[in-house]
Amino acid sequence: MTDRAVAKSLKVVVLTLEYLSVLVLHGPNLNLLGQREPGIYGSLSLAEINRLLEEEGKKLQAKVSCLQSNHEGVLVDAIHGALGQHEGILINAGAYTHTSVALRDAIAAVNLPTVEVHLSNIYRREEFRHNSYIAPVAIGQISGFGVQSYLLGLQALVDHLRNKT
Q1: If DSSP codes are grouped into helix, strand and coil, which group holds residue 70?
Q2: Active site residue ranges
Q3: How far apart are CA 88 and CA 160, in angstroms?
Q4: N or C: which terminus of the chain carries fewer CB neighbours within 10 A?
Q5: What is the pLDDT of residue 6?
Q6: 68, 26 in Cβ contact below 8 A?
Q7: Mean pLDDT for the stretch of residues 111-118
Q8: Phi and psi dihedrals of 147, rounded to 5?
Q9: How far is CA 130 from the centre of its chain?
Q10: Using alpha carbons only, how large is the chain's radius of gyration in Å?
Q11: How confident is the model at residue 38 (pLDDT cuts 50, 70, 90)?
Q12: What number of other Cβ atoms are within 10 A of residue 117's Cβ?
């Protein structure tokens, strides 16, 4: 059999993973990371965290788009805008985690898989931080591991997106 005949008789299957698109949202005061209470939130800036997320996204074949806002409505609009643009959302809503029914409802409305992350362990902090309006509409929550919370959250979200049935 010639090489050409062999090539024609074999079906070659090439597995290539499609790039996913993930929206990363950072809530109020996270623009001050690196300066604000480094003992709680760490010494990395938000720009450094975004860079690490983008690098991790490349490894996972996921495009990461990051947005930070101190304004609840901007975050709600970004969640609405994610529909049809992104396959999933990674969110650290900051203080809005504990107060925003609007963010909770926006996440529920778009019905995109969402992972909630926090740099600090919100359950080891003040009592008011123990309640999350987002957790009930998220596929998971990771907190207390500093910047690793974001990276683990991204990995878990991408894994979920690739393996959902």
Answers
A1: coil
A2: 41, 118
A3: 9
A4: C
A5: 47
A6: yes
A7: 98
A8: -60, -25
A9: 20
A10: 19
A11: confident
A12: 28
